[in-house]
Design goal:
Chain lengths: 383, 426
């Protein structure tokens, strides 16, 4: 059977070569696309290290600046927020999440420089955002004066090469900071890996707040904010920024999904073209060989054997194309071509192999159907 | 004429197949157009930025501190002002990247884009003023609280009034006097797009800024710098003067920090060039080649698909070709028919693809043009048709035509009439 199939393939050299090239390109596109997708979405389904539901971020300030009264007004706003019937909890400071990328550079234990997200907060913040303490304790008001901070395990390891670093100190811009606790790891947003972060105590006087609203009361709270601000700062004498973390997250995700969609749309189109062309080529070739099938059938081959011939003929082309595409892939990767450096090589190749097998099964679907309906007398008459 | 009608009739005989070809070519062309528009919207001249092709931009400044910490940001006033003293460019302007004034309305934030600029900004850009005029370099020097607003912002502040010159608007405590109103600026004009523009001295970082924006000793802050050359041939001279300037500036600040990366570059190079460094200020031959290769990469699978399908179709018609050859049709006659048949189909597909490409980018610019996070699309989008676009489309036509006819023509020409009549593979 193998010899017969190889004979058939050699008789249709040009068609075989074209199918081979088409499938090789399809394999290559799929390996790259699946690898790229996995790389982009690798953190999407992992925990973030905090909750987002019903949490809003508020920055408030007076328009007409007066340093002596501004901080008093900010504290007054904090008290008003606490007293709001829509609010469950309020923390001063904001966690600098989603698309706020303020970072500072620190020097690690081995003198390497790394970026850290500074995140504001007070004694309520951990509870409000569902952050857990792994070692030591969470922030207290007294930590503001003593520069006590809570770090994530990433910072602990980068600074001191160990995880439990409670009580240890480091210097940054001539100030000394003491680690008073280690909290769970935090993802800046769902498209990023755990990033080094630390929490410092931020007073209400700074005018930045994280607010947990009661379930379902967020819309009413956001509508009430204008009155709240007016009562504290005076009519039209304030600047305000307020958004829920969930809204910020969906805005950030919107951009990511748009770029993923653009990435996928093009590649899906290419795969679809490759699939349909492959199917069409098998179809054309089978149609052209109708008489051959009829003669074989008349000579005693079963219909399943004939379908097997088509399947194996194309399987051989597919395997050849797969190997050829992988050789190209690994060669380009060897030369450090950027797009070929995916981390997910094995899952990608497995996925591609499965997809190509589905290609083949779809490809032989129509010819198989035709062979099942084979009418020898009709077929022998066909041109 | 009768021959053409025969070819057309022949082309459209298998309607489903031809429709599939046209869709395949149209969608592929659409991707080519989208990709090229994404590049040209930033790299080519546009409605509000008529001098992109003869400008070098400073878009980012990286400094390294003595303890090896690195910080990347835009240019600061010290650097901007030094660059304004350069002799080789015709003009030098600096302005902020698009900033946002956050307005809290109906319980949600609305972001209104703005820029703080110098007075030369209005000479290196092109705006259509419907009222008044821009502020001048002198106005900026005197920190006059002036503002140029777009028609959309005029509507926000003044409703349907049309004579608003001299009127005041208040933005986050800043009282600004309207000196001009411009037509809305398309989102695709990357460094012009905004809804209001004001002197950087009047702004002072008070709206979505910071104190560094007025600090004359800062090399890093929030400004982009555009140097306008008399012709693009002056780029090398400008670049040389700039490098000398940077060496001098680095000597001045070496005790605190060092500017380690601040590339003055064409916009095309900055966004789409590879291996950008201090000396690579424009798109290289390798970048241009990469641009064409990326188009060929888009065409790869559709091209192979076309070759496969056309070859299979030609195989199916081999008996017909054999009979026509037998009754006297020459090889060149059959070949020219094959070329015209395919050219008609390809041209229809390409035209459809161009339309689809432009319409999709116009409707969804955020997906395809990556320069600005605009916040809204009041100004619409202005899409160029450049020489680069034309060359990429010609490449697409040639590749598709070659893919469609080369193999069948080559194979048919080598086959004897008998072989063609037998209906074997060509």
């Amino acid at each position: 059977m193998i010899i017969h199939i190889l004979h058939i393939i050699s008789r249709n050299r040009a068609t075989t070569l074209l199918s081979f090239l088409l499938l090789s390109a399809a394999v290559l596109v799929n390996v790259l696309s699946a690898g790229g997708m996995m790389q982009r979405m690798q953190y999407s389904f992992l925990p973030r290290g905090y909750t987002m539901d019903d949490i809003g971020i508020l920055y408030a300030d007076a328009k007409n600046k007066d340093e002596t009264t501004d901080s008093i007004r900010n504290v007054e706003l904090y008290n008003h927020l606490k007293a709001s019937p829509y609010v469950e909890k309020v923390a001063s400071g904001t966690p600098n999440l989603i698309y706020n990328y303020n970072r500072i550079s620190l020097k690690g234990y081995n003198d390497t420089i790394f970026s850290v997200y500074p995140r504001g907060g007070d004694e309520e913040m951990a509870d409000l955002m569902g952050i857990k303490i792994l070692h030591g304790r969470w922030l207290q008001p007294s930590d503001h004066g003593s520069s006590g901070i809570v770090v994530t395990p990433e910072v602990a390891r980068l600074l001191f090469n160990e995880e439990n670093v409670t009580g240890k100190s480091f210097e940054f811009q001539e100030d000394k900071y003491t680690v008073i606790g280690v909290c769970n790891s935090i993802r800046q947003n769902k498209h990023a890996n755990f990033s080094p972060s630390f929490f410092y105590f931020e007073k209400p006087a700074e005018g930045a707040f994280t607010i947990l609203t009661k379930a379902g009361k967020e819309p009413a709270f956001s509508r009430s904010l204008k009155n709240l601000m007016t009562s504290v700062y005076g009519i039209n004498n304030y600047t305000i920024y307020y958004e829920t973390i969930r809204y910020q997250d969906s805005a950030k995700n919107h951009y990511t999904y748009v770029s993923v969609f653009q990435f996928l749309f093009l590649r899906l189109f290419m795969l679809l073209v490759a699939l349909l062309s492959f199917v069409a080529v098998i179809w054309y070739t089978t149609e052209r060989r109708k008489q051959e099938w009829s003669i074989r059938y008349a000579m005693g081959r079963s219909k399943m054997q004939l379908i097997g011939y088509i399947f194996f003929e194309n399987l051989i082309i597919l395997i050849g194309a797969f190997i050829f595409a992988l050789v190209i892939f690994f060669s380009l990767r060897h030369f450090n071509v950027e797009s070929f450096a995916t981390k997910f090589t094995l899952p990608t190749i497995t996925l591609t192999a499965l997809l190509m097998l589905i290609f083949l099964l779809i490809g032989i679907l129509i010819p198989s159907h035709k062979i099942k309906k084979l009418d020898v007398s009709e077929l022998l008459k066909s041109e | 004429m009768s021959k053409l009608s025969y070819i057309l009739k022949n082309s459209f005989q298998k309607r489903f197949l031809i429709a599939a070809y046209i869709v395949l070519i149209a969608l592929t062309t659409m991707f080519v157009v989208q990709q090229q528009l994404g590049i040209d919207s930033i790299g080519a001249n546009n409605l509000n930025e008529p001098y992109v092709n003869r400008s070098l931009y400073l878009s980012g400044v990286q400094v390294t501190y003595p303890d090896n910490r690195k910080e990347s940001f835009f240019a600061g006033l010290k650097l901007c002002k030094r660059m304004k003293e350069m002799k080789t460019p015709e003009k030098v302007s600096f302005f902020t990247w698009v900033r946002y004034w956050g307005v809290f309305e109906n319980g949600r934030m609305n972001r209104i884009p703005f820029r703080a600029t110098d007075g030369t900004y209005w000479d290196v850009m092109k705006f259509r003023f419907v009222e008044g005029h821009p502020y001048t370099e002198e106005d900026v020097g005197e920190s006059k609280p002036l503002v140029v607003i777009s028609e959309t912002l005029r509507k926000r502040f003044f409703g349907n009034e049309t004579q608003v010159l001299g009127r005041q608007i208040e933005i986050e405590g800043l009282r600004l006097t309207v000196c001009g109103v411009v037509k809305n600026v398309p989102y695709s004009s990357a460094y012009a797009f905004a809804e209001f523009w004001m002197p950087y001295t009047a702004w002072g970082g008070k709206i979505h800024g910071g104190s560094s924006t007025l600090d004359e000793n800062e090399v890093q802050s929030l400004y982009l710098v555009q140097t306008l050359a008399r012709t693009s041939l002056d780029f090398a001279k400008i670049h040389q003067e700039y490098n000398t300037l940077m060496t001098g500036l680095n000597k001045e600040i070496e005790s605190e920090k060092k500017i380690t990366q601040a590339t003055l570059s064409t916009r095309m190079n900055y966004y789409f060039g590879k291996n950008i460094n201090q000396d690579k200020y424009k798109f290289s031959a390798a970048d241009i080649l990469r641009n064409y290769l990326s188009t060929l990469w888009l065409l790869l699978i559709p091209l192979l698909a076309l070759v496969c399908l056309n070859f299979a179709r030609a195989n199916e018609r081999s008996t017909e070709m054999g009979i026509r050859r037998m009754v006297g049709a020459g090889k060149s006659e059959i070949n020219s028919e094959l070329i015209i048949e395919n050219l008609v189909v390809i041209l229809i597909g390409i035209m459809l693809g161009i339309s689809l490409g432009y319409v999709t980018v116009y409707l969804y610019p955020f997906i395809f043009i990556t320069s600005v996070d605009a916040g809204n699309l009041e100004g619409g989008v202005w899409l160029p048709f450049t020489g680069r676009m034309l060359s990429h489309l010609l490449l697409t036509i040639v590749v598709f035509l070659a893919a469609s006819v080369a193999l069948p023509i080559a194979r048919v020409s080598h086959q004897s009439i008998l072989n063609l009549l037998k209906g074997d593979e060509l």
